[in-house]
Amino acid sequence: MSATITPAQRIVIIRLWSQVCKDRSWKASDRDLRLAKFSELLGREIPSMDDIERIDECTKLMKSLKAMLGTDLNAARESDDQTINQARVIRSQILDNLIPCLELYIEDVRAYLTTIIESKNRYRQTDRPTRELTLMDLDARQLKHIQYTLAGRLNTLRNKKGETIHQMKTRAMVYCTCSECTKGRASHSVRASLPPTTIAA
Ligand SMILES: [Zn+2]
């Protein structure tokens, strides 16, 4: 009985290896790199893949390669989740705070927003969907950029109208963080926690 790996085992190992390479941007066709890494994982120098012993080493190698892959996949997933979460937070800040205020000064905020999004993301025009771009199409970095732009525009519009931030936010019915409101909320926290009927009476 041969002590070396079977063709089937070889296929599994090569497949795992090419996934690892893809994850790490390594060249899968680099035989020297492959043998060097396999030697490292097995803890002994192997001159060729045929030199891998059938049971123990084969299992060890598969496990190690899967571990390399698993770690990378989890790390990638985690950073993806973080970016998606960040995008979600910025998107809701735009929708909950900026848009209601912009609506005080601009008639068609939706069209206004689309124009800004599209002018800021011109490079996307070649492969963009045929429909108009929306906040949902943007990643966290792009959303941050739109948020800054909108906040700047809003500031200009508000000043033109001669309103304070508090006046604007009160009219737009969005949560105001000015010092007056913050102080008010703190001293009325007991009252605010009472049911609405109690306050009305
Ligand atoms: Zn206020």
Set out the fold topology.
Elements: H1 7-24, H2 31-42, H3 56-105, H4 109-120, H5 140-161, H6 165-172, H7 179-187, H8 189-192, H9 196-200
Residues 166, 169, 176, 178, 180-181 line the site of zinc ion.
Structure, described:
The protein has 201 residues and is mainly α. The chain has three domains: 70 residues, no CATH class; 88 residues, no CATH class; 28 residues, no CATH class. It is 70% helix and 0% strand. The longest helix is centred in the middle third of the chain and has 50 residues. It starts with 6 loop residues before the first helix and ends with a helix. The C terminus is likely disordered. Zinc ion (ZN) binds next to helix 6 and helix 7. The site of zinc ion (ZN) has 6 residues, from helix 6 and helix 7.
Would you kindly provide a brief summary of this structure?
Helices cover 70% and strands 0% of the residues.
Radius of gyration: 29 Å
The best one-word shape is elongated
Main pleated-sheet profile? none
Mean pLDDT: 83
The secondary structure category is mainly alpha
Number of helices: 9
Poorly predicted regions are: 197-201
Helical proportion, percent range: 55-70%
What is the domain tally? Answer: 3
Number of beta strands? 0
Task: Give the DSSP E fraction (strand runs of 2 or more residues).
Answer: under 5%
